Amino acid sequence: MEYLKKADVVEQTSSHDVEQTVKSIIENVKAGGDDAVREYEKKFGDSDRPVRVSEEEIEHCIRTLPEEVKVLIDRVVERVSDFAEAQLNCLTPFEKDFGEGIKMGHRIVPIEKVGAYVPGGRFPLLSSGPMVVAPAKVAGAKRIVAASPANYEGGIHPAVLYGLIRSGATDIFAIGGAQAIAAMAYGTESIPEVDIIAGPGNRFVAEAKRQVFGKVGIDLIAGPSEVMVFADDSASPQKIAADLLAQAEHDPYARAILVTTSRTVAEETEKAIEGFLKTFSPSSPAHESWEKRGEIIYADSLQEGLDICNDYAIEHLHLHIKNSRELMDKLNNYGSLFLDEGSSVVFSDKVSGTNHTLPTQKAARYTGGLWAGSYVKVMTHQEITGQGIQFLASHAEDQSEIEGLEGHKLSATVRLT
């Protein structure tokens, strides 16, 4: 393994500073409710509008948004919903006998109140709302509270707002940042308290989700976008370069990484990236992302490349390798896998149907991404009768005696006949 280009990671703000800032915001929102939320919206977003999106705004959005944009968003909602429904159907309630008089099972129950955070970002990302909200709707959530920054002409961008409406959001608030997470976690006079908060965001949003976890559930803590392309000598440097830059342009802190068994592909890809970047806007985050966080890694063998992929546990893993499907069972740590050079990560970002809210920073070692199952509870139950009572009570009595638990032993003993 050899780094032909290694990341030079530079953080803007220390994690301690972010942690303390977010802690203060959460405490103030808990104490001050709507007033505190409005103060932070003025401070961070220069917004003094009402926090709730009104029916009039929604009607105006639907009326004025171009039909061709609505068609695109409707297609995203449909495809994300279809995939979420197929996933949910894999979760099956059951009940069966586990011995005479011992009946056990589980039910699949929707989480009732969902908080959906949809970042504003540099551009109005049409898929962001559907990715977070549509699976909750499919799962059967009764109330879906959506929050997105008011960073477009004093409100939420009409395309983002339309996506939230079409996906099934029941309450929409034009607020962002850590204050939005705090408001949904603890509730305010206007903003309902929820049971789980899902959706990506910046470092302050991610830290806020970490701090409110326990008070509410969260999906995962997702950081800036990550992509790793694993390529052999059959790969196209032009396509690799395009795929790396597509994710690099999300954020200056995004990570775009090439792992390849071909030095020629590595060299030609770096040249292609430099060429493409000359055509990008000077303000594009891709410039800083690639300069400071981009990496090119040469692997001595296919197996070493696979080991690197599994070690990085990257968000998006794209195989530009011939017969890449044959490698799928050897890859265990990734947010989402893209087989062959035709399967662009951009398709998943936009419309293919798999969710683009995925684990970053090696979290793929222990979790997958957001899905319909994130919005349900698997709740077990049991019914013990007849001979089952005698069998289990006898065991529990003996075990409780060994453990010195008098109350447990008593509860078992009184059932023995």
Automatic annotation (TrEMBL):
UniProt: NAD(+) binding residues: 117, 179, 202
Cofactor binding, note field: Binds 1 zinc ion per subunit.
GO cellular component annotations of the record: cytosol
Record: residues binding Zn(2+): 247, 250, 349, 408
GO biological process: L-histidine biosynthetic process
Membrane-traversing stretches: none
Residues at the catalytic site: 315-316
EC number per UniProt: 1.1.1.23
Full protein name: Histidinol dehydrogenase
Species of origin: Peribacillus castrilensis
Gene that this polypeptide is encoded by: hisD
